Amino acid sequence: MTDGTNLRPAREDFRWESVEVLTYKAEADAGFMAITRQVLLKDAGLACELRYFEMAAGGYSSLERHLHVHGVMILRGSGHVLIGDSVRKMGPRDLVTIPPNTWHQFRATEGEPFGFLCMVNCERDRPQLPTPAEITELRKTPAIAAFLDGRPLTP
Amino acid sequence: MTDGTNLRPAREDFRWESVEVLTYKAEADAGFMAITRQVLLKDAGLACELRYFEMAAGGYSSLERHLHVHGVMILRGSGHVLIGDSVRKMGPRDLVTIPPNTWHQFRATEGEPFGFLCMVNCERDRPQLPTPAEITELRKTPAIAAFLDGRPLTP
User: Fold this and answer.
1) Do A45 and B69 touch (CB under 8 A)?
2) Whole-angstrom Cα distance, residue A114 to residue A76?
3) Which fold has domain A12-149?
4) Do A95 and B43 count as a contact with CB atoms less than 8 A apart?
5) Collapsed DSSP state (helix, strand, coil) of residue A15
6) Residues of A with CB below 8 A from B1's CB?
7) Contacts 24+ apart (CB under 8 A), B21-29
8) How many A×B Cβ pairs under 8 Å?
9) Is B155 part of the contact surface with chain A (CB cutoff 8 Å)?
10) B interface test, pick of A46, A72, A76, A154 with most B CB neighbours within 10 Å
11) Least CA distance to A18: which residue of chain B?
């Protein structure tokens, strides 16, 4: 920003000049751990925002679903992602789109920071968290139960 | 895509499974060289697209302007970017927003491939190319003349 452009250089360790490192969510009971949020691209002329979320080793995002779509590119490290009824390992530059109304959660399962870019519409609905009955249903899939428990996963 | 998810793993050399490497533009007279386009994130539920543009060493994008905004993150290598009346060097993970109606061009000036993510509204106006008179006006700034000629630039 210093010379009148809106250029924000990258800094060490997946931080950026003039980009604040934020709490992941305001609600502490939303079932997340060791995850930060940075808003990288946001402008009145853009209908989407690009955010960067990063988990420390062992950290995870909320298990949630919503009607809006997430467009995701992994930027740092490897980890596992629950999307619908699949648990998949993802690494740098891998892409995934999370469809509407689909349970999803990101976990830093590989003993290293795990960070991803997330493109999302500026206008969007609020996430829903699962009920105990919905968690019971999800856990019927063994890979999902292992993922939710933080147990070792096959690739 | 193979297991029913829409995960598209990264491949070597900044390519992705199930993502086609496209011509930069259909119009060959739009003043570009040695640049490709890949559409990474595009979905009926997303109001923006995320594209990846990559120039080979010495390549460049069109010099253009339009009313829509570009949100940019450099993903590969370093190069120079003209935005308005500034020429700036950019490298991995640097961020910039290109405001409406602002001349801009990307150049792979550092003898290496230079690639960037570009987030843009799905609904947008067509780019304008500069007239000879507009190019003459731009070239009055010495750094811009050097940039347009592909001459060495200060950082």
Assistant:
1) yes
2) 5
3) Jelly Rolls (2.60.120)
4) no
5) strand
6) none
7) B24/B53, B24/B61, B24/B62, B25/B62
8) 139
9) no
10) A46
11) B95
Is residue A132 within 8 A of residue A68, CB to CB? The reply is: no
pLDDT for the residue A5? 66
Tokens at A24, concatenated: 């992941």
Candidates A69, A88, A117; nearest CB to B46:
A69
Is residue A149 pLDDT above 80, yes or no? Answer: yes
**Nearest partner of A80 among A3, A7, A2, A152, judged by Cα:** A152
- Residues 5-44 of chain B with CB under 8 A from chain A are 5-10, 14, 16, 19, 40-41, 43
Query: What ipTM describes this predicted complex?
Result: 0.93
Q: Give me the CATH topology for the region B30-149.
A: Jelly Rolls (2.60.120)
Tens of pLDDT, residues B51-68: 999 999 999 999 999 999
Work out the average pLDDT over A111-138.
Answer: 97
Say if B45 is an interface residue toward chain A (CB within 8 Å): yes
pLDDT tops 80 at residue A96: yes
Chain A residue with minimal CA distance to B44? A69
Question: What is the residue-averaged pLDDT of chain A?
Answer: 93
pLDDT at A146 over 70: yes
Q: What is the pLDDT of residues A55-86, one digit of tens each?
A: 999 999 999 999 999 999 999 999 999 999 99
The first and second tokens of residue B102, run together, are: 């602002």
Chain A's closest residue to B99, CA to CA, is A45
Rounded CA separation B3/A153 (Å):
17
d(CA B11, CA A20): 32
Stretches in chain B below the pLDDT threshold 50: 1-2
Residue A28 has pLDDT above 80, yes or no: no
